[in-house]
Amino acid sequence: MLGFMGTVIGMIFAFDTIEAAGDISPSIVAGGIKIALLTTVAGLIVAIILQLFYNYLVAKIDSLVNDMEDASISLVDVLVKHKVTGKQFLSFSLYKIKFLPTKDRYHGQL
Hints:
By secondary structure, the protein is mainly alpha-helical. The chain has one domain. The chain contains three helices and two strands, in the order αααββ. Strands 1-2 form a two-stranded antiparallel sheet. The longest helix has 56 residues, at 26-81. The chain is rod-shaped, with a radius of gyration of 33 Å. 3% of the residues are buried. It comes from Halteria grandinella. Belongs to the ExbB/TolQ family. It is found in: Cell membrane. It is a multi-pass membrane protein.
């Protein structure tokens, strides 16, 4: 958008100078075209940098998602290997936890 806005501003500047001079010559139009081209280049540089940063972030997020999928598959494999269902896992976990009273609260101990 920065490059496009610069192009429009440069063209407006070029047409304003043509109107003020009342004549069309390359030297009159060159200033506006220069502004348009410089802002277009600046916009392209910013866009390229942001695109590289965006690609890096997307790759990092994809890597994290793949790691999470691998971890969940490993967890399911362990649960299937030990033939533990959700209900059995919950009752097994609650059976192993003993609550020990303290002054102000209970602490679970595995």
